[in-house]
Amino acid sequence: MLRARRSGDAAAAWTAYLRLDEGRKLLDASRVTVGEGVLDPFLDRARKTYESWSGIGHEPPARSGGDSTLRFPRARALDSVTVLAEPGTKGTVEVRTPDGGWRRLGTLSAGGATELPGGDGRVDAVRVTGGTGVRHLVPWFADAPAASLELPGARTDADIGGTRRVTATLGSLRPADVRGTLTVDAPEGLTVRVPKNALTVPRGSSLEVPVEVTVRPGTPVRSYDVRLAFAGTTRTLTVHAVPRTAGPDLARAGRASSSADETPGFPAPAANDGDPDTRWSSPVDDDAWWQVELEHPVRLGKVALHWQDAHPSAYRVEVSADGRTWRTAATVRDSRGGRETLGMDEPGVRHLRVRGEQRATPYGYSLWSVEAYAVAR
Ligand SMILES: [Ca+2]
């Protein structure tokens, strides 16, 4: 099956896939164990590889009415149609035009694997007439992007003066290789490097592409949107430019306090004691806060938080020179808890406060640790 797929022999690959299915049913029914833990995962992977390549993985959920007709919610431009049928099934593939008439695309191949070009104009249904052995009917739309473009996340931090590498994953959304150039639109201050040459995404698989984001020295601290595009698909990568930090965790030597502690067993200093197993917990109060007074004023570049399960959905980090007048250094609106690192560039900071706005759970807030780092000189 895999060999046939690699050589592009669609009929042989389809026949092998059908046989694999039958073989596995026999294997399941037998008492003999063959290559337990090795054979099954291999066959699963082989199956998925074929399904992705052949188009089965792209097949719309269910054909209405149980016949071999697939209706689209709206009229669409068709790139091509894949039909997988029992070998020997005879039939004609047709599409319905907006005037309600059916137009013939072609006949089924004797081997069972048929691929036909979709022709011009928009159509709102595709069907196979004559045959009852149709197993899969997959339309490929020409009005949708030819490729997918995925990033590990919609946002990333990048040091000012440094380079951040992320990996973009391109996938083919056609029963063919997709060729194109990955293009970048980057704002002032950012240089984004991607391969300059044209890229080929093999049919039914994906291609990983390195993306290097360099933030030029002197670029202001804030978020920048980088637009990436490939074969009709665009994605935005939000780059948060943060100062480079250096030196020890300054919170460790600071004096912690809080709006209140849930119990004496979860005191404020447990969040800056360097012990990953102790934590501060607040009572149930949306506005609860934790703060630390640093030994000396610093130019604060980074705050790293480690939330316990009890975390806020919204909070902010405030800073102060004197512990009386505060300013907001970072605001988080969609916290998922866990480890969160916030970049900033705040001079003259002696006091740092994590102030809750909205609880994400029925409990209060709980922090395993809060770390603070100065901007590198
Ligand atoms: Ca701790």
Automatic annotation (TrEMBL):
Pfam families: F5_F8_type_C
Domain F5/8 type C: 237-375
Gene3D superfamilies: Galactose-binding domain-like (2.60.120.260), Hyaluronidase post-catalytic domain-like (1.20.58.460)
Highest taxon above the source species: Bacteria
Organismal lineage: Bacteria, Bacillati, Actinomycetota, Actinomycetes, Kitasatosporales
Disordered: region residues: 246-284
Protein name: F5/8 type C domain-containing protein
